[in-house]
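Hello,

Our lab assistant flagged a job as stuck in the queue for most of the afternoon. It eventually completed. Since we weren't sure the result was trustworthy after the delay, we are filing this so someone can double-check. Below is the sequence as submitted and the structure that was eventually returned. Let us know if re-running is recommended.
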Amino acid sequence: MGNRILQQTPPAQIRAFDQEISAVPELVKLTLGEPGFDVPTHIKQAAIQSIHDNDSHYAAAAGKLPLRQAIATNLKQRYGVDYQPDGEVVVTNGATEALTASLLSLLNPGDKVIIPTPGYALYQPLVTYTGAQPVEVNTRADGFVLTPEKLAAVIEANAPVKALLLNFPVNPTGRTYQQAELAALAAVAKQYHLLVLADEIYGDLTYDHRHYSMVEALPEQTVLISGLSKSHAMTGWRIGYLAGPAALVQQIAKMHSFLVTCINDTAQAAALEAIENGQDDPVKFRQEYEHRRNLMIEALTAAGFEMATPEGAFYLFAKIPAQYGDDDFAFARVLAKQARVGVIPGSVFGPGGEGYVRLSYAADEADIKVAMARIQAFMAAQN
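-- returned structure --
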Protein backbone atom coordinates (compact mmCIF):
# COMPACT_ATOMS: atom_id res chain seq x y z
CA MET A 1 0.00 0.00 0.00
CA GLY A 2 3.06 2.28 0.13
CA ASN A 3 5.06 4.22 -2.43
CA ARG A 4 7.43 1.77 -4.13
CA ILE A 5 10.18 4.30 -4.79
CA LEU A 6 10.16 5.43 -1.16
CA GLN A 7 10.11 1.85 0.10
CA GLN A 8 13.25 1.11 -1.91
CA THR A 9 15.03 4.21 -0.63
CA PRO A 10 17.18 3.67 2.49
CA PRO A 11 16.75 6.04 5.43
CA ALA A 12 19.08 9.02 5.85
CA GLN A 13 22.38 7.28 6.58
CA ILE A 14 24.00 10.09 8.55
CA ARG A 15 21.22 10.08 11.11
CA ALA A 16 21.03 6.28 11.06
CA PHE A 17 24.72 5.83 11.87
CA ASP A 18 24.60 8.57 14.50
CA GLN A 19 21.72 6.75 16.16
CA GLU A 20 23.51 3.40 15.88
CA ILE A 21 26.52 4.56 17.92
CA SER A 22 24.63 6.82 20.33
CA ALA A 23 24.33 4.08 22.93
CA VAL A 24 28.12 4.07 23.50
CA PRO A 25 28.70 5.44 27.03
CA GLU A 26 30.45 8.85 27.25
CA LEU A 27 30.61 9.11 23.46
CA VAL A 28 31.88 12.46 22.13
CA LYS A 29 29.99 13.13 18.92
CA LEU A 30 31.63 14.76 15.94
CA THR A 31 28.88 13.39 13.72
CA LEU A 32 26.24 16.02 12.91
CA GLY A 33 26.52 19.47 11.35
CA GLU A 34 25.15 21.18 14.43
CA PRO A 35 26.70 24.59 15.21
CA GLY A 36 28.04 24.67 18.75
CA PHE A 37 26.76 28.18 19.45
CA ASP A 38 23.61 29.74 20.84
CA VAL A 39 21.42 31.88 18.61
CA PRO A 40 22.53 35.52 19.04
CA THR A 41 20.49 37.37 21.66
CA HIS A 42 19.19 40.09 19.34
CA ILE A 43 17.66 37.42 17.09
CA LYS A 44 15.96 35.70 20.00
CA GLN A 45 14.59 39.04 21.19
CA ALA A 46 13.03 39.66 17.78
CA ALA A 47 11.30 36.30 18.01
CA ILE A 48 10.03 37.05 21.52
CA GLN A 49 8.69 40.40 20.37
CA SER A 50 6.89 38.66 17.52
CA ILE A 51 5.07 36.46 20.03
CA HIS A 52 4.15 39.45 22.22
CA ASP A 53 2.79 41.19 19.13
CA ASN A 54 0.48 38.23 18.44
CA ASP A 55 2.23 37.58 15.17
CA SER A 56 0.52 34.22 14.77
CA HIS A 57 -1.47 34.07 11.56
CA TYR A 58 -0.93 32.63 8.11
CA ALA A 59 1.89 34.37 6.29
CA ALA A 60 2.17 34.69 2.53
CA ALA A 61 3.09 31.32 1.06
CA ALA A 62 6.38 32.64 -0.35
CA GLY A 63 7.27 34.30 2.96
CA LYS A 64 6.58 37.69 4.47
CA LEU A 65 7.36 40.48 2.05
CA PRO A 66 9.75 42.40 4.39
CA LEU A 67 11.82 39.22 4.79
CA ARG A 68 11.88 38.57 1.04
CA GLN A 69 12.91 42.18 0.51
CA ALA A 70 15.73 41.78 3.05
CA ILE A 71 16.94 38.59 1.34
CA ALA A 72 16.91 40.29 -2.07
CA THR A 73 18.80 43.30 -0.69
CA ASN A 74 21.38 41.05 0.96
CA LEU A 75 21.96 39.10 -2.26
CA LYS A 76 22.34 42.36 -4.18
CA GLN A 77 24.93 43.63 -1.70
CA ARG A 78 26.88 40.37 -1.62
CA TYR A 79 26.75 39.19 -5.21
CA GLY A 80 25.52 42.14 -7.28
CA VAL A 81 22.44 40.27 -8.51
CA ASP A 82 18.92 41.70 -8.71
CA TYR A 83 16.02 39.55 -7.56
CA GLN A 84 12.45 40.77 -7.29
CA PRO A 85 11.16 40.03 -3.78
CA ASP A 86 7.76 39.23 -5.30
CA GLY A 87 8.24 36.33 -7.69
CA GLU A 88 11.95 35.51 -7.47
CA VAL A 89 12.49 34.81 -3.75
CA VAL A 90 10.84 32.16 -1.55
CA VAL A 91 11.30 31.62 2.20
CA THR A 92 11.41 27.89 2.97
CA ASN A 93 11.43 25.41 5.81
CA GLY A 94 15.22 25.16 5.82
CA ALA A 95 17.47 24.59 2.83
CA THR A 96 16.31 20.96 2.64
CA GLU A 97 12.74 21.99 1.84
CA ALA A 98 14.05 24.54 -0.65
CA LEU A 99 15.93 21.74 -2.40
CA THR A 100 13.00 19.32 -2.20
CA ALA A 101 10.51 21.84 -3.59
CA SER A 102 12.94 22.75 -6.37
CA LEU A 103 13.54 19.15 -7.44
CA LEU A 104 9.83 18.27 -7.36
CA SER A 105 9.01 21.39 -9.37
CA LEU A 106 11.68 21.29 -12.05
CA LEU A 107 12.44 17.62 -12.75
CA ASN A 108 10.50 15.11 -14.82
CA PRO A 109 10.80 11.31 -14.72
CA GLY A 110 13.85 10.28 -16.74
CA ASP A 111 15.67 13.62 -16.43
CA LYS A 112 19.37 13.24 -15.59
CA VAL A 113 20.94 15.23 -12.74
CA ILE A 114 24.69 15.42 -12.18
CA ILE A 115 25.70 15.15 -8.51
CA PRO A 116 29.40 15.52 -7.58
CA THR A 117 30.45 13.05 -4.90
CA PRO A 118 31.37 12.75 -2.11
CA GLY A 119 28.35 14.95 -1.46
CA TYR A 120 25.50 15.49 0.95
CA ALA A 121 23.75 12.16 1.49
CA LEU A 122 20.20 13.43 0.82
CA TYR A 123 20.79 14.52 -2.78
CA GLN A 124 20.70 11.12 -4.44
CA PRO A 125 17.48 9.84 -2.78
CA LEU A 126 15.66 13.13 -3.33
CA VAL A 127 16.50 13.12 -7.04
CA THR A 128 15.54 9.45 -7.32
CA TYR A 129 12.19 10.07 -5.66
CA THR A 130 11.19 12.51 -8.42
CA GLY A 131 11.71 9.76 -10.99
CA ALA A 132 14.79 11.53 -12.31
CA GLN A 133 18.15 9.77 -12.64
CA PRO A 134 21.14 10.80 -10.50
CA VAL A 135 24.46 10.81 -12.34
CA GLU A 136 27.07 10.66 -9.59
CA VAL A 137 30.51 12.03 -10.47
CA ASN A 138 33.43 10.86 -8.33
CA THR A 139 35.65 13.90 -7.61
CA ARG A 140 38.23 12.09 -5.47
CA ALA A 141 40.95 12.11 -8.14
CA ASP A 142 40.59 15.89 -8.55
CA GLY A 143 40.96 16.83 -4.89
CA PHE A 144 37.22 16.53 -4.23
CA VAL A 145 36.18 19.34 -6.61
CA LEU A 146 34.32 19.13 -9.91
CA THR A 147 36.48 20.28 -12.82
CA PRO A 148 34.97 21.80 -15.99
CA GLU A 149 36.68 19.11 -18.08
CA LYS A 150 35.06 16.32 -16.08
CA LEU A 151 31.69 18.10 -16.10
CA ALA A 152 31.76 18.37 -19.90
CA ALA A 153 32.82 14.74 -20.28
CA VAL A 154 30.04 13.50 -18.01
CA ILE A 155 27.45 15.56 -19.90
CA GLU A 156 28.63 14.15 -23.23
CA ALA A 157 28.62 10.58 -21.89
CA ASN A 158 25.11 10.90 -20.42
CA ALA A 159 23.39 13.27 -22.86
CA PRO A 160 20.89 14.69 -22.53
CA VAL A 161 21.47 16.03 -19.00
CA LYS A 162 19.04 18.49 -17.47
CA ALA A 163 20.61 19.74 -14.25
CA LEU A 164 23.69 20.03 -12.05
CA LEU A 165 23.27 19.91 -8.28
CA LEU A 166 26.32 21.74 -6.93
CA ASN A 167 27.02 22.17 -3.22
CA PHE A 168 29.85 24.42 -2.01
CA PRO A 169 31.56 24.80 0.37
CA VAL A 170 31.14 21.05 0.15
CA ASN A 171 29.64 18.83 2.81
CA PRO A 172 31.53 16.57 3.68
CA THR A 173 34.97 17.71 2.43
CA GLY A 174 35.01 21.44 3.15
CA ARG A 175 36.35 22.11 -0.37
CA THR A 176 35.01 25.09 -2.33
CA TYR A 177 35.54 27.00 -5.58
CA GLN A 178 37.48 30.15 -6.35
CA GLN A 179 35.95 32.72 -8.69
CA ALA A 180 37.80 31.46 -11.80
CA GLU A 181 36.90 27.83 -11.08
CA LEU A 182 33.25 28.72 -10.67
CA ALA A 183 33.26 30.77 -13.88
CA ALA A 184 34.70 27.79 -15.77
CA LEU A 185 31.95 25.48 -14.47
CA ALA A 186 29.33 28.11 -15.33
CA ALA A 187 30.66 28.30 -18.90
CA VAL A 188 30.15 24.56 -19.34
CA ALA A 189 26.67 24.74 -17.80
CA LYS A 190 25.78 27.57 -20.18
CA GLN A 191 27.13 25.72 -23.21
CA TYR A 192 24.98 22.67 -22.46
CA HIS A 193 21.96 24.64 -21.18
CA LEU A 194 22.08 23.04 -17.73
CA LEU A 195 19.83 24.08 -14.91
CA VAL A 196 22.06 24.63 -11.85
CA LEU A 197 20.77 24.06 -8.34
CA ALA A 198 23.43 25.76 -6.18
CA ASP A 199 23.26 24.66 -2.55
CA GLU A 200 25.34 27.36 -0.86
CA ILE A 201 24.10 26.92 2.72
CA TYR A 202 27.72 27.14 3.99
CA GLY A 203 28.49 30.29 1.98
CA ASP A 204 28.99 32.41 5.09
CA LEU A 205 31.62 30.00 6.39
CA THR A 206 34.47 30.38 3.89
CA TYR A 207 37.86 30.97 5.49
CA ASP A 208 40.54 32.11 3.08
CA HIS A 209 38.58 34.15 0.55
CA ARG A 210 35.10 35.52 0.16
CA HIS A 211 32.40 33.15 -1.03
CA TYR A 212 31.70 33.41 -4.76
CA SER A 213 28.19 32.39 -5.74
CA MET A 214 27.08 30.62 -8.90
CA VAL A 215 24.50 33.40 -9.36
CA GLU A 216 27.36 35.81 -10.05
CA ALA A 217 28.44 33.71 -13.03
CA LEU A 218 25.17 32.24 -14.32
CA PRO A 219 22.10 33.94 -12.80
CA GLU A 220 19.76 33.10 -15.69
CA GLN A 221 20.16 29.31 -15.21
CA THR A 222 20.73 29.08 -11.45
CA VAL A 223 18.44 28.52 -8.49
CA LEU A 224 20.33 29.60 -5.36
CA ILE A 225 19.55 27.69 -2.16
CA SER A 226 20.72 28.95 1.22
CA GLY A 227 19.49 29.75 4.73
CA LEU A 228 20.35 30.70 8.28
CA SER A 229 20.92 27.31 9.91
CA LYS A 230 24.71 27.34 9.62
CA SER A 231 25.45 31.06 9.39
CA HIS A 232 23.48 32.06 12.51
CA ALA A 233 23.37 28.74 14.44
CA MET A 234 19.63 28.50 13.75
CA THR A 235 19.30 24.84 12.72
CA GLY A 236 16.16 24.30 14.79
CA TRP A 237 14.39 27.39 13.46
CA ARG A 238 14.20 25.84 9.97
CA ILE A 239 14.65 29.00 7.93
CA GLY A 240 15.96 28.66 4.40
CA TYR A 241 15.38 30.49 1.17
CA LEU A 242 15.82 30.23 -2.56
CA ALA A 243 16.17 32.77 -5.34
CA GLY A 244 16.28 32.53 -9.09
CA PRO A 245 14.64 33.45 -12.39
CA ALA A 246 10.90 34.13 -12.10
CA ALA A 247 9.90 31.42 -14.57
CA LEU A 248 11.53 28.78 -12.35
CA VAL A 249 10.86 30.24 -8.92
CA GLN A 250 7.14 30.71 -9.50
CA GLN A 251 6.80 26.98 -10.15
CA ILE A 252 8.88 26.18 -7.06
CA ALA A 253 6.73 28.56 -5.00
CA LYS A 254 3.66 26.61 -6.08
CA MET A 255 5.18 23.31 -4.91
CA HIS A 256 6.42 24.97 -1.72
CA SER A 257 2.87 26.03 -0.86
CA PHE A 258 1.65 22.45 -1.43
CA LEU A 259 4.35 21.10 0.91
CA VAL A 260 4.24 23.47 3.89
CA THR A 261 1.59 26.19 3.25
CA CYS A 262 3.87 28.82 4.77
CA ILE A 263 6.69 29.33 7.28
CA ASN A 264 5.83 30.20 10.87
CA ASP A 265 5.72 33.89 11.77
CA THR A 266 8.08 33.83 14.74
CA ALA A 267 10.89 32.18 12.79
CA GLN A 268 10.43 34.73 10.01
CA ALA A 269 10.68 37.61 12.50
CA ALA A 270 13.92 36.12 13.80
CA ALA A 271 15.22 35.67 10.24
CA LEU A 272 14.46 39.28 9.35
CA GLU A 273 16.47 40.46 12.34
CA ALA A 274 19.33 38.10 11.48
CA ILE A 275 19.58 39.34 7.89
CA GLU A 276 19.09 43.04 8.59
CA ASN A 277 21.12 43.38 11.80
CA GLY A 278 23.11 40.16 12.17
CA GLN A 279 25.72 40.36 9.42
CA ASP A 280 28.53 40.32 12.00
CA ASP A 281 27.26 37.14 13.66
CA PRO A 282 28.68 34.74 11.02
CA VAL A 283 32.03 36.56 11.18
CA LYS A 284 32.38 35.70 14.88
CA PHE A 285 31.32 32.11 14.29
CA ARG A 286 33.64 31.73 11.30
CA GLN A 287 36.65 32.89 13.30
CA GLU A 288 35.90 30.34 16.00
CA TYR A 289 35.32 27.55 13.48
CA GLU A 290 38.64 28.32 11.82
CA HIS A 291 40.35 28.05 15.22
CA ARG A 292 38.68 24.69 15.86
CA ARG A 293 39.56 23.51 12.36
CA ASN A 294 43.24 24.26 12.95
CA LEU A 295 43.16 22.58 16.35
CA MET A 296 41.65 19.43 14.83
CA ILE A 297 44.02 19.36 11.84
CA GLU A 298 47.05 19.62 14.12
CA ALA A 299 45.85 16.82 16.37
CA LEU A 300 44.80 14.46 13.56
CA THR A 301 48.01 15.05 11.61
CA ALA A 302 50.01 14.21 14.72
CA ALA A 303 47.97 11.01 15.01
CA GLY A 304 48.89 10.02 11.46
CA PHE A 305 45.80 10.96 9.47
CA GLU A 306 45.87 12.50 5.99
CA MET A 307 43.34 15.16 4.93
CA ALA A 308 42.91 18.22 2.78
CA THR A 309 42.58 21.52 4.63
CA PRO A 310 38.91 22.57 4.46
CA GLU A 311 38.34 25.99 2.88
CA GLY A 312 34.79 26.31 4.20
CA ALA A 313 31.92 24.72 6.14
CA PHE A 314 32.90 22.93 9.38
CA TYR A 315 33.95 19.42 8.39
CA LEU A 316 37.19 17.50 8.01
CA PHE A 317 37.35 14.55 5.61
CA ALA A 318 40.16 12.30 6.82
CA LYS A 319 41.65 9.13 5.28
CA ILE A 320 41.27 6.17 7.60
CA PRO A 321 44.27 4.03 8.66
CA ALA A 322 45.62 1.73 5.94
CA GLN A 323 44.87 -1.46 7.86
CA TYR A 324 41.12 -0.83 7.41
CA GLY A 325 41.37 -0.55 3.61
CA ASP A 326 38.29 1.33 2.44
CA ASP A 327 35.99 -0.07 5.14
CA ASP A 328 35.12 3.26 6.73
CA PHE A 329 32.07 1.79 8.51
CA ALA A 330 34.28 -0.73 10.32
CA PHE A 331 36.73 1.98 11.33
CA ALA A 332 33.99 4.35 12.52
CA ARG A 333 32.39 1.59 14.61
CA VAL A 334 35.70 0.64 16.22
CA LEU A 335 36.49 4.30 16.89
CA ALA A 336 33.13 4.73 18.59
CA LYS A 337 33.40 1.61 20.73
CA GLN A 338 37.08 1.77 21.67
CA ALA A 339 37.92 5.49 21.56
CA ARG A 340 34.38 6.73 22.36
CA VAL A 341 34.44 9.23 19.49
CA GLY A 342 31.63 9.42 16.97
CA VAL A 343 32.37 10.21 13.30
CA ILE A 344 30.48 9.55 10.05
CA PRO A 345 31.72 6.94 7.52
CA GLY A 346 32.72 8.62 4.28
CA SER A 347 30.96 6.13 2.02
CA VAL A 348 27.54 7.47 3.05
CA PHE A 349 28.43 10.52 0.94
CA GLY A 350 28.66 8.51 -2.26
CA PRO A 351 31.44 7.29 -4.59
CA GLY A 352 34.81 8.71 -3.65
CA GLY A 353 34.02 8.80 0.03
CA GLU A 354 35.05 5.22 0.68
CA GLY A 355 37.98 4.95 3.05
CA TYR A 356 37.37 8.32 4.68
CA VAL A 357 35.47 9.62 7.70
CA ARG A 358 33.84 12.99 8.25
CA LEU A 359 34.47 14.82 11.51
CA SER A 360 32.50 17.95 12.42
CA TYR A 361 34.38 20.75 14.16
CA ALA A 362 31.13 22.59 14.83
CA ALA A 363 31.18 20.80 18.18
CA ASP A 364 32.15 22.57 21.38
CA GLU A 365 35.91 23.19 21.65
CA ALA A 366 36.15 21.30 24.93
CA ASP A 367 34.54 18.25 23.30
CA ILE A 368 36.89 18.54 20.33
CA LYS A 369 39.92 18.52 22.62
CA VAL A 370 38.65 15.44 24.46
CA ALA A 371 37.91 13.69 21.16
CA MET A 372 41.34 14.49 19.73
CA ALA A 373 43.10 13.17 22.84
CA ARG A 374 41.08 9.96 22.63
CA ILE A 375 41.81 9.50 18.91
CA GLN A 376 45.53 10.05 19.46
CA ALA A 377 45.56 7.49 22.25
CA PHE A 378 43.58 5.05 20.08
CA MET A 379 45.94 5.46 17.13
CA ALA A 380 49.00 5.04 19.36
CA ALA A 381 47.58 1.75 20.63
CA GLN A 382 46.77 0.62 17.07
CA ASN A 383 50.33 1.32 15.97
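-- support follow-up --
The delay was a queue issue, not a problem with the job. The result is valid. The domain at 4-39+281-382 is CATH 3.90.1150.10 (Aspartate Aminotransferase, domain 1). Residues 112 and 161 are 5 Å apart (CA to CA).
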